[in-house]
Amino acid sequence: MFNVLENEVGENDNVDENDKNDEDDNGDANKNDGFQQVFADSKEDLYEGCKKYSKLSAVLRLFNVKANHNWSDKSFKELLKVFHDMLPVGNKLPVSLYEAKKMLCPMGMEMERIAACPNDCVLYRNQYKDLHECPKCGASRYERKKQTKVSGNVTKNGPPAKVLWYFPIIPRLKRLFASPKDAKLLRWHEEERKKDGKLRHVVDSPQWRNIDHTFDEFRNEIRNIRFGLSSYGINPFGNMSSRHSTWPVLLCIYNLPPWLCMKRKYIMMSLFIQGPKQPGNKIDVYLSPLIDNLKTLWSPGVQVYDGYLHENFRLRAMIFCTISDFPAYGNLSGCDTKGAKACPICHDYTCSRWLKYCKKTVYMGHRRSLPPDHPYRNMDNLFDGYSEFGSLPLPSNGETVFSQVENFQNEFGKKRKRGKSVEIWKKRSIFWDLPYWKDLQVRHCIDVMHIEKNVCDSLIGLLLNIPGKTKDGVNARKDMVDMKIRPEIAPQENSDGKRTDYLHGSKSIGLSEGRHEGRLAGVGTIGKKEEFPSKDYMHQAHYTVLQHMTCIGIYVHEHKRFLKTTNRNKSDKFLAVEHYNTFASWLKDKISNLVDVDEEVKRLAYGPSESVTKYQGYDINGYTFYMKQQDAKSTLQNSGVTLIATTTGFPRGRRSRRILIMVLLKKF
């Protein structure tokens, strides 16, 4: 840590006057004074005679423990007081949280809070930094709706209506190269990677080689940085606000090894765009501070100290590509990702079709990528009703795309009602301000997660007919009829004329059917035999079935109430026995006197037949069971049938009380 600080301060002595930034002298002096104080604290003993900890290292160690264990500021403040009292008199440990943080302030990274128009028209920076109202829409800069008196100092008029948090990347790159370990890792792509022609890392891609071929000066310095830029909306409030959308802009460094470039430690959050609404197409307004830094990093570059080689060098950096989902792809590139010409590769040659019943646009013409003699090209009835003889258009290069958007006039700010447009471009993206952008072969990429998850989810849901996931439905089948394809799966109207059955007789694919499929009702297999059980056994079986049927539940309660009313002085044991003995006959008499009774209730009330069909083997619920005698003949046995049930028992003795007994029943 201290070597990093020494390198940051020491490099100012070796930078030419022409390479210094346009900061004022007072700011530089204050920054250097802060670093000098940090060095003084690092050499000052925690207390007289202490050789293990300095004043700075002790505070750093305590803050590290605080961060690892999520201590609150209040508890940390109390801990500082306790430690200060425990240490010898005259120790240098801070006694307040404010003093401890003040010691570490010079080691922190720079951060800028830039006020923004609530309608995303402009950022209040450069020529707009002293304005109180938006120069385009007239909206107030401040959160307060009514301003009685506006001060000339914009910082004294209350909080701004919207804020952009900007974390400059140049100081962070300097800090990264000042560490010898990190500076060595940033050379990995050239010195340590395996070069066998296989695609293992971004450095093996054609785009990397194209950049090296086009920009010789950039290629000659292996420490020059290639960034990947990504942005996506998040909801920091979880379930408390389902519509809030905050957009961070992240940068990953492709110079690093593949096992490190996507680690949180090496991903830089350069911008944090405040919600509650997503910036959408107006994200360029918020990207402008970052683009200004990237222009500086491209030309002329910045002077940086290399802690690995112990030398100063001029660092340059560029955006290698952007990574996002498809809607954010349109926001970053300016390409229209909705409607009839939504393909960013085909543009005017996009094959699209509006579905009348699903009410959405679908994109056809994928057979154009097949070889000219492929049989699928002539299978019109299985696709869109037409044979395909065309070929895919070649992707437009950067020069061609730039010529299309070069004179495009952007209009950011409050939404204006516009009619339907068939234009390919919504705006001139701010990335075209970068001098090298038109020389890149691939400028915007779609992240793998959305391709894997969304597309595969749709395909699997369709193949397995997963409810809520499948794209197959009545409207999809109607659109097929409208397109005059696949007549064999057209929806069929039922006899009632209201419902539409579109899956009649069809089967889902993807999962093999088990040998017990369709036999869940129970099927006897071997050893069929007719038997006439005793009346007591049949009565017990009939009673057990009635007690467990939901449709008989109301009659069970009614019979128990009837017994309690007619036998007020009898015990619970007597009532339970009487219910067991008389419920079946009582139910049969009651049902026979009723007119409107469910057929299932009638069949249950009349009782079972006198004969019982028995099997030595039986298939039910996907399992095969055998009688013990039959199962004993087999090498593999499946004879244990376990049932956990409840019953009401009464102990012997004078006191009669109800006991619930868990019975473990094993049969077969």
In short:
This protein is of the alpha+beta class and 668 residues long. Among the domains are: 2-107, no CATH class; 454-501, no CATH class; 523-667, no CATH class. It is built from 20 helices and 20 strands.
State the main characteristics:
single chain; 668 residues; alpha+beta; 7-stranded mixed β-sheet; 3-stranded antiparallel β-sheet; 20 helices; 32% helix; 15% strand; disordered C terminus
Detailed description of the structure:
The chain is α+β, with helices and mostly antiparallel strands and 668 residues long. Among the domains are: 2-107, no CATH class; 454-501, no CATH class; 523-667, no CATH class. It is 32% helix and 15% strand. It is built from 20 helices and 20 strands. Strands 1-2-5-4-3-8-11 form a seven-stranded mixed beta sheet. Strands 14-17-18 form a three-stranded antiparallel beta sheet. Helix 18 (572-592) packs across helix 19 (599-606). The two termini are 75 Å apart. Residues 1-25 and 653-668 have low confidence and may be disordered.
Can you summarize the main beta sheet? 7 strands, mixed
Estimate what percentage of residues fall within beta strands: 5-15%
What would you call the shape? extended
Computed CA radius of gyration, to the nearest angstrom: 39 Å
Widest sheet, order of strands: 1-2-5-4-3-8-11
Overall mean pLDDT stands at 81
Count of helix runs:
20
Poorly predicted ranges: 1-25, 653-668
Number of strands: 20
Q: Could you say which structural class the secondary elements and strand pairing correspond to?
A: alpha+beta
Distance between the termini: 75 Å
